[in-house]
Design brief:
mainly alpha; 20 helices; 81% helix
C-alpha cells in the first residue's frame, strides 16, 4: 500500500513548485519596483490596488473550486459537475466586468486614483480572467494532471516576470510613475491570458448543460466558503486599504502621499513574510483534493494528524529562517533604507502566517463534514476583529497596529477552528508536538534577541543560523522514526 503522506508531499512539490517559483520571482520584483519608483508612495498605489485584486478573485470564483472537488466525489456525471461550476463562474464574471466598464470612474474615485480609470479596467480584466481560469485549473488538479498544471502556471509566471523586467527596467520613465502602475498591471494581464490560451479546449468543449438543481446545491455549499474567503481576505489585505484611508485625512495631496508611502513601506516589508505564505499556498494546492480523497480511508484521521505534525514543524522552521536572517535579506530585497523602518513587522507577520497555516490545515473538518457555514462564521469573526483592531489602533500606531492585528486574528481563528472542530468533526491532533515545535521556535527567536551583536556581523549570522540548525536537528530527532504503515502513525 502506497503511503498517502508521501503522495501528498509529492503532489505538494509538483503543484506547489510553480507557485513557489512564481512567488519567489515576484518577490524578486519588489527591489526592482522599489528602485524604479522614486518614492514609496508610488509603490503604495500598486500595493493598494493589489489588495483589491485579492478580494475580487475570491468573490468572482465564488467558492466553486472547493464545491467542484466536493461534488466530484459523489456524482457519476463528473462532466456535469464541472459544467455547472464553470458556467456559474463565467456568468458571475461577465456581469462583474460589465459593471466595471460602466462605473469605472466612480470606482476610481473611491480607490483614490480618480485620474486613472485605466487602472480600474485593467484590474477588472485581470481578476475576471483569473477567476474564470480557476475552474479548468481545478479540473487538472482533480484529474492529477500535475505536469500540465505546472506548465501553465510556469509559463504564466515567466510572461509576468519577463514583461515586468522589460517594461520597468527598459521602458519605464521614473518621472511618470503612473506609467509604472500601468506597466505592472499590463504585465499581469498578459500573464493571466496565458491560462485560457492553454486551457482553450475546456472553453471550446464546454457543454451548456446546466442542471439548476445541482447548481443550487453547489451554490448553497459554496456560498459560505466564498463568504468565508472574503472575510479571510479581510485579514490578509484590508490593513493596506485601511492604512490608506485612515492615515489620509482627505484634505491635501501631502496627506495622501504620506498615507501611500506608509502603505508602500508596510507592503514591502510584508513581502518578507512571503516564504511562509509560499509554503502554505503550495501546500493548499495539493492538500485540498488530497484530504477529500481520504474520505473513504479508515485511517484518514491518523493521516490528518500526522500531516499536521509535519506542517507545523516546517512552517516554524521557515519562521526562524527568515526572522533570524532579516539583516541579510533586507540588503538584497529591500535595498532602499527608507523602507527599513518597517522591518519591525516581519517577525510578527511570520508568526501570524504560522497560525494561518495551522488554521488552513484544520479547516478541512468543516469541508469534509459539509458544515462550511462554520468556515464563514470563523472568517467573519476574524474579519470583524481585524477591522476593529486596525480602526482603533492605526491612528496611534500606524502599520504596527496592522501587523499585530494580523497575528492576533490568525491565532484567534486557529483556536476557534480547533474548538469547533473537536465538537463537530473531531480529529485528535497531537497538541503536545504542536506546542513543542511552536514554543521551541519562539524560544530560539527570543534567545537570538538576547545577544547584542552588531547588525549584519559574521558572529550574529553564525549564531542565528546555528540556532536554526538546532531547531531542525530537534525536529529531525522527533520525527525521524517514520513508520512505513499508516496504521502505525502517531
Amino acid at each position: 500500500m502506497s503511503n498517502p503522506i508521501k503522495k501528498l508531499l509529492g503532489q505538494t512539490a509538483i503543484y506547489g513548485l510553480p507557485s513557489i517559483i512564481g512567488r519567489m520571482l515576484n518577490f524578486l520584483l519588489v527591489p526592482i519596483y522599489i528602485a524604479a519608483f522614486a518614492s514609496a508612495k508610488d509603490y503604495g498605489v500598486v500595493s493598494q490596488l493589489y489588495a483589491w485584486v485579492a478580494f475580487l478573485v475570491v468573490f468572482l470564483s465564488f467558492g466553486m473550486e472547493t464545491a467542484f472537488f466536493r461534488f466530484l466525489q459523489n456524482k457519476e456525471d463528473k462532466n456535469q459537475v464541472f459544467s455547472n461550476s464553470f458556467l456559474t463562474v463565467i456568468g458571475i464574471n461577465i456581469l462583474f466586468f460589465l459593471l466595471i466598464i460602466t462605473f469605472n470612474q466612480e470606482i476610481a474615485n473611491t480607490l483614490k486614483v480618480a485620474e486613472h480609470t485605466e487602472f480600474i479596467v485593467l484590474l477588472g480584466a485581470i481578476v475576471c480572467i483569473d477567476a474564470v481560469s480557476s475552474l479548468p485549473l481545478a479540473k487538472l488538479r482533480a484529474e492529477e494532471r500535475a505536469a500540465k498544471f505546472a506548465l501553465i502556471q510556469t509559463v504564466s509566471i515567466a510572461v509576468n516576470i519577463g514583461l515586468n523586467l522589460f517594461l520597468m527596467l527598459v521602458v519605464f520613465d521614473k518621472t511618470k510613475p503612473e506609467e509604472g502602475v500601468i506597466f505592472i498591471l499590463s504585465a499581469n494581464l498578459f500573464s493571466s491570458l496565458v491560462k485560457p490560451v492553454f486551457l482553450y479546449k475546456d472553453f471550446l468543449n464546454l457543454k451548456f448543460k446546466f442542471n439548476p438543481q445541482l447548481a443550487k446545491t453547489m451554490i448553497i455549499y459554496a456560498l459560505p466558503i466564498m463568504i468565508g474567503g472574503l472575510a479571510g481576505i479581510v485579514n490578509e489585505t484590508i490593513d493596506r486599504i485601511l492604512l490608506l484611508n485612515i492615515l489620509d485625512n482627505g484634505r491635501s495631496e501631502a496627506s495622501l502621499n504620506y498615507a501611500n508611502s506608509q502603505v508602500g513601506i508596510y507592503s514591502a516589508c510584508y513581502k518578507l513574510s512571503m516564504l511562509v505564505t509560499i509554503m502554505i499556498q503550495a501546500y493548499r494546492y495539493a492538500a485540498e483534493p488530497f484530504f477529500f480523497a481520504q474520505l473513504k480511508n479508515d485511517d484518514k484521521n491518523t493521516i490528518y494528524r500526522k500531516v499536521m505534525n509535519y506542517f507545523v514543524a516546517a512552517v516554524c522552521a521557515v519562521f526562524l529562517l527568515v526572522s533570524l536572517n532579516v539583516d541579510l535579506i533586507k540588503v538584497i530585497f529591500i535595498p532602499n533604507k527608507d523602507y527599513w523602518e518597517g522591518l519591525r513587522v516581519v517577525p510578527i507577520l511570520l508568526l501570524a502566517n504560522v497560525f494561518f497555516g495551522v488554521y488552513i490545515n484544520q479547516s478541512i473538518w468543516y469541508k469534509l463534514s459539509n458544515q462550511t457555514r462554520f468556515g464563514a462564521y470563523i472568517a467573519i469573526a476574524g474579519a470583524i476583529l481585524t477591522i476593529a483592531i486596525n480602526v482603533i489602533f492605526i491612528p496611534s500606531y500606524g502599520y504596527m497596529a496592522s501587523a499585530w492585528a494580523t497575528m492576533i486574528v490568525y491565532a484567534f481563528q486557529m483556536v476557534m477552528s480547533y474548538v469547533l472542530g473537536q465538537r463537530y468533526y473531531p480529529i485528535k491532533y497531537n497538541l503536545r508536538k504542536f506546542f513543542l515545535y511552536l514554543g521551541l521556535a519562539i524560544f530560539l527567536f527570543y534567545i537570538a534577541g538576547i545577544f547584542h551583536f552588531s547588525e549584519g556581523s559574521i558572529v550574529k549570522i553564525f549564531v542565528n543560523n546555528l540556532l536554526i540548525l538546532i531547531y531542525i536537528a530537534i525536529i529531525w530527532y522527533m520525527e525521524k522514526p517514520v513508520k512505513s504503515k499508516v496504521s502505525k502513525m502517531s
